[in-house]
Design brief:
two-stranded antiparallel sheet, 2 strands, flat
Length: 146
Amino acid sequence: MTLGQSLKSLRNKKGLSQYEVADKLGIKRGRYNSWENDIAKPRFDMLDKICDFFNIPMSELIGQSEDKMYVSPNSSPLSEKDEKDIAKRMEKIKNDLTNEDGLSFNGEPMSPEAIESLLEAMEYAVRQTQRINKKYVPHKYRKENK
């Protein structure tokens, strides 16, 4: 079962709408919807908040196969400086998007939910790129095993 399927199942068991769960978690419905549809993944701190809300252990929410995605030994953890850089970059992107006149997609004005979803996807991409770049060591800095 994917994380999104788990979220949907838990929500349905409680008889709640996406709006109600999102409100309880302090997020927008579009963000929660993207998690249920496996379009995006919540950050680890939000996973903890979700587990508290549904009163379940983390292992039940994300399962063994998806657990590796969040705590992979191959993934480089982001430092406090990385987090600050990402936050600054995302703030600039958000300002650029919200200060533009006539922001649209396919000729239609973007709703606040669509803008929020776009920002979430962009943050995910920035975070992944930051992690990948931390693993890369330019050739001139590599230690040669001779």
